[in-house]
Each structure stands twice: as structure tokens, then as C-alpha cells.
Amino acid sequence: MKKKIISLLCASAMMLSMVGCASDTATNDTDKVYNVGICQLVQHPALDAATQGFKDALIEALGEDHVTFDDQNASGDSSTATIICQNLVAENVDLILANATPALQAAVAATDSIPILGTSITEYGVALELDDFNGVVGGNVSGTSDLAPLDEQAAMVTELFPDAATVGILYCSGEPNSVYQADVVKAALEESGLTVNIYTFADSNDVTSVTSEAVDNCDVLYIPTDNTAASCTEAINNVALNAGVPIVAGEEGIMAGCGVATLSISYYNLGYTTGQMAARILTGEEDISNMPIEYDTEPVREYNPELCEALNVTVPSDYIAYEG
What is the pTM (predicted TM-score) of this model? Predict the structure, then answer.
């Protein structure tokens, strides 16, 4: 009888010990603080909104006390983005958000083990030079794309400016995703019978001169989602507005600064989706190597009331006025 009692006591002690260990493990997981590094290429409204959406989603999912952010901005310089990402890797952050293509390229070059999520990336296959890209990057990389329907953006040009004969496409030659968008839109516009000229600037130093050349030779301009253009909208607008040449933009931030209309995604929502992806990766719910690139499926037609009035542009009733 004594032996049975001793056996039961030992078994009970073992069970309590196991419960205690499980409880300790759960407590450790609950107390985990994740350190997330952010490399944003440049400060402008679209990228700022994506970063904010990312932070908000992670804080909502993990709790404000369980995530910290090392948020750094490369001020438009790819070399600085490289240094930022290398430093984040040296800090051994738990995850890196790479906001814009050069930031993603820098992060991928810096680590093949720390999870990397891109956002504000137009086309991952182009950005990372992937052959036969099927929607999943694999390895330690995934993210979200800001690609809006380019054929519909091209159609906006002909819808808003049916009398236009020549369209200029203006973008930075150093941004691969801008090149990709320009090629697609150019083909679509040419199928509509328009003459399309390409105008590229290498950096912000020649934006004004290149824009001047474009407005001298075109009836309307199109600017794709382009980080350099987005940071130079005031300079572009000073030239285009003075010349009376309207601009259709690839995203809301550029339109707000120098465009009359856009078919744009919500960069805040895009960043928020990226943050939700990050939460699932950090908590072990999903393996980043299997996660497909996600998209904003509800782009919105918007117009800039101030510039439309200044340039006598009338938009259809289904366009929404941009309110800033």
C-alpha cells in the first residue's frame, strides 16, 4: 500500500513539474519583445504611410510592450540603405522591413537568414532579378507590392485627355520598377494610337531640366510610382504647371504634389498588410519562405482639385477628390 502511495505522489510531482515548465515557457513567449528593423529609402507621403501602417499592425497584433522599432531613413541614397541594413543585421534584429526597392535590395544583400519583408515594391521579379518569378520569392524574403493596374492607369490618360497626341513618361532611370511600369504603360498607350516619349533623370539634380524638355514636347505626362519623382514633386510641378501640361500619376503622393489624377492604392493599408505578415512570421504562425507577395486589390481613382481647376481638367463623377 505504501509503495502505491509513494508511486502516486511521485507521478503527481512529475505532472506538477511538467505543468510548471509549460507555464514558464508560455510566460517566456508572452514576455518576448521583438526588435524590428526598418530601412525606408526616402521620406515622402507614400512611404511614410506604409511604414506607419506596418507599425500599427504589429503593435496591434503583438502589443505595444512586445515590439520595438529601429526605424531608419536612407534619405534617398542607396549606399546609405546598404549601411543601414548591415547595421540592422549586426544588431541581430528579429525582422527587417525594407520600404522601397533599393532598401529591399540592400537588405537582401545584407542577410540570407533574418526575415525580410518588402513594401512599396512594384515588381519583386524585376527588383531582385528573379527568372520566372511566380509570386513567391522564397528563402527569407516576402512582402507586399504597390503595383496598381497599369493598363487602367494608361486608360486614364486617354479618358481624361482624348485630344492628346503625345504623352511623355517621366521617371528615374535608376529605379528598375519605374522602368518596368514605363514599358507596360508605353505599350498600352501606343496601342491606343498615341505617340509616347520617354524622359529619364538620373537623380534629383536633373529633374527640372528633364521635366522642362518633356513639357516642351508633350501634351500630357505620366509618372509611375517612382521614389525620386515623389521626393521632387514641387520641382516637377513648378515646371509642368507653368507650361500648362497636366500629369497623370502612378500613386497618390505624386498626384498630391504635381498630378491631376491617379489610380492609386492605399500605402497605409499596404503597410498594414505587411505588418500583419510580420506578426505571423515572428510568432511562428507562418514560414516566410512559403509566403506569396500580397497586393492591394482595391485601388481608388482620385483627382487633385487644386491642379484640376488650375489646368481646366474635368474628371468623371466616379473620381474621388484628394483631401490631403
Answer: 0.81
